[in-house]
């Protein structure tokens, strides 16, 4: 119950930060916060996100160390024996023994590690027992969350927030809300911060799984093991689906940056300016209309593959979350299974097709001379996000191929369990594991991948020139002159002429700014 409460608090906090991010786009609110300079920084959404992620990662690591890392082999074995022989597992034991009997009959001549042991309890312990190498590797991987926090925190403040503020201080109006990010910077911050949300999700899922592997889940001993495991799996997948939604937000943000860069060309700005300066009441603003059409064409048609990919991916994740919600409750488990079976396979097939379309779409746009000039290697900058999306989809499928009892494992087992790769022969029995251990390995490797992506993002984006790429283009803040600030009395006198001279950037009036 404690683990569920911590996870729920984390996701509610993440949702509140996203809502606060939207509210901070109100200039009046930013001016109010910047009356105290320290609040202007501390209450920015990216600062709150970092603080919240730090609390989530540290509290999860503390829970892992206190509840699971200190358990010795004998204590784990004792817990699992008690779980197996619990009165609530009478029906489970009968089913488990029947499965073992059928496996012995079909596995004649094969030598699994404990297949000769007649004690079903020993098989149950073997199913959940974590090998020593995986135990240590998983413990180390949990500490990698702290490394991700440090790398991302350094990247956000050293390479984005502080340089952006330095540019803002040179602007006549934005200097009064100097810690507020521009729209493009907001999108960039989402890209850099999302590995932290991914890390917190994976660490939470890891603690849930260890609750089952150590016999410490709250419902163990009070409910049948099959139901407890199904509920844990539902919570496990809900954490990973939230991480997936975060990655779709990253893809969306990257596409928004590239569409803004393509729309922000000197030719369009020059044409708009010439038409505006020479326009009379009856003169049609031809260049302005053309510029707006060009911008909308890029944003909607140019990135159509990306938008469809994001929408289908989010729908799939929401469907999975709904399934997890129903499956975690025994009362609605049948309804959850029915919904999942009827809808998930179709959406997954569609999603796989649009994944390819999205990658091609982004690769083509990323190779545009305008994007290369502004962002410098846009496709390499997008690679980190692409890695996490691919690893999340593919890694678990590869590991599940070695789950004994799985479809692929059975197929290979029938032909002797040998896989020939050039001159090397692999025996699948050397890699076999239970479904629970397959998921533990997946989480362990994901923690490593997240750190790699955080470092990769730091390396790829560190050379970005915020001003050259358009991240430091500030539009005028009319509220500064309308309301005034404590130290802007001189500016107030000349406020109207100044506002008339400043021009609003084309990407600043965007209805799709999320």
Protein structure class: mainly alpha
Radius of gyration: 27 Å
The biggest sheet amounts to: 2 strands, antiparallel
Biggest sheet strand line-up:
1-2
Output the number of helix runs. 21
Task: Give a summary of the structure in a few sentences.
By secondary structure, this protein is mainly α. It is 73% helix and 2% strand.
What does this molecule look like?
There is one protein chain. This protein has 514 residues and is mostly helical. Among the domains are: 1-72 and 130-220 and 438-514, no CATH class; 401-432, no CATH class. The protein has 21 helices and 2 strands. The chain has helices at 2-23, 27-33, 37-42, 45-69, 73-84, 90-106, 120-128, 132-168, 183-213, 225-263, 266-278, 286-302, 304-327, 333-366, 369-375, 378-400, 407-414, 435-461, 478-483, 489-493, 495-501; strands at 418-421, 424-427. The protein has a two-stranded antiparallel sheet with strand order 1-2. Helix 1 (2-23) packs antiparallel against helix 4. The longest helix is centred in the middle third of the chain and has 39 residues, at 225-263.
List keywords for this structure.
514 residues, mainly alpha, two-stranded antiparallel sheet, 21 helices
Walk me through the topology.
Blueprint: H1 2-23, H2 27-33, H3 37-42, H4 45-69, H5 73-84, H6 90-106, H7 120-128, H8 132-168, H9 183-213, H10 225-263, H11 266-278, H12 286-302, H13 304-327, H14 333-366, H15 369-375, H16 378-400, H17 407-414, E1 418-421, E2 424-427, H18 435-461, H19 478-483, H20 489-493, H21 495-501
Helix pairs in contact: 1-4, 4-8, 4-9, 5-7, 8-9, 8-18, 9-10, 9-18, 10-12, 10-13, 10-16, 11-12, 13-14, 14-16, 16-18
């Amino acid at each position: 119950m404690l683990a569920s409460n911590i996870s729920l608090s984390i996701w509610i906090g993440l949702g509140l930060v996203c809502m606060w991010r939207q509210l901070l786009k109100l200039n009046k609110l930013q001016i109010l916060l910047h009356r105290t300079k320290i609040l202007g920084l501390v209450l920015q959404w990216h600062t709150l996100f970092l603080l919240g992620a730090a609390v989530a990662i540290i509290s999860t690591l503390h829970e892992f160390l206190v509840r699971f890392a200190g358990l010795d082999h004998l204590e784990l074995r004792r817990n699992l024996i008690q779980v197996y022989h619990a009165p609530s597992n009478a029906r489970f034991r009968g089913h488990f023994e029947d499965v073992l009997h059928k496996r012995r009959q079909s596995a004649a001549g094969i030598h699994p590690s404990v297949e000769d042991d007649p004690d079903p309890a020993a098989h149950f312990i073997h199913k959940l027992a974590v090998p020593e190498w995986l135990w240590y590797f998983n413990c180390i991987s949990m500490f990698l969350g702290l490394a991700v926090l440090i790398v991302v925190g350094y990247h956000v403040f050293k390479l984005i927030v502080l340089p952006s503020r330095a540019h803002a201080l040179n602007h006549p109006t934005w200097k009064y809300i100097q810690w507020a990010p521009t729209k493009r910077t907001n999108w960039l911050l989402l890209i850099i911060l999302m590995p932290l949300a991914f890390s917190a999700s994976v660490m939470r899922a890891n603690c849930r799984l260890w609750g089952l592997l150590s016999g410490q889940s709250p419902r163990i001993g009070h409910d049948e093991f099959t139901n407890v495991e199904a509920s844990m799996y539902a919570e496990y997948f809900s954490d990973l689906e939230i991480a997936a939604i975060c990655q779709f937000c990253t893809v969306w943000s990257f596409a928004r940056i590239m569409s803004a860069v393509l729309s922000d060309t000197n030719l369009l700005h020059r044409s708009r300016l010439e038409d505006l300066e020479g326009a009379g009441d009856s003169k049609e603003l031809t260049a302005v209309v053309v510029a707006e059409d060009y911008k909308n064409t890029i944003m909607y048609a140019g990135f159509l593959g990306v938008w469809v990919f994001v929408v289908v991916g989010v729908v799939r994740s929401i469907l999975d979350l709904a399934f997890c919600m129903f499956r975690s409750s025994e009362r609605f488990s049948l309804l959850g299974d029915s919904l999942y079976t009827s809808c998930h396979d179709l959406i997954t097939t569609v999603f796989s097709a649009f994944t390819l379309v999205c990658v091609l779409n982004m690769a083509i746009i990323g190779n545009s001379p305008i994007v290369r000039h502004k962002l410098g290697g846009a496709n390499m900058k997008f690679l980190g996000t692409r890695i996490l999306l691919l690893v999340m989809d593919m890694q678990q499928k590869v590991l599940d191929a070695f789950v004994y009892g799985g479809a692929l494992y059975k197929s290979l087992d029938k032909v002797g369990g040998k896989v020939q790769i050039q001159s090397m022969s692999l025996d699948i029995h050397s890699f076999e594991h239970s479904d629970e251990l397959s998921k533990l390995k997946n989480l362990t490797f994901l923690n490593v991948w997240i750190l790699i992506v955080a470092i990769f993002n730091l390396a790829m984006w560190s050379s970005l020139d915020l001003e050259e790429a358009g991240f430091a283009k500030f539009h005028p803040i009319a509220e500064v002159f309308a309301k005034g600030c404590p130290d802007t009395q001189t500016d107030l006198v000349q406020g109207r002429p100044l506002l008339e001279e400043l021009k609003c950037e084309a990407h600043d009036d965007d209805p799709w700014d999320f």
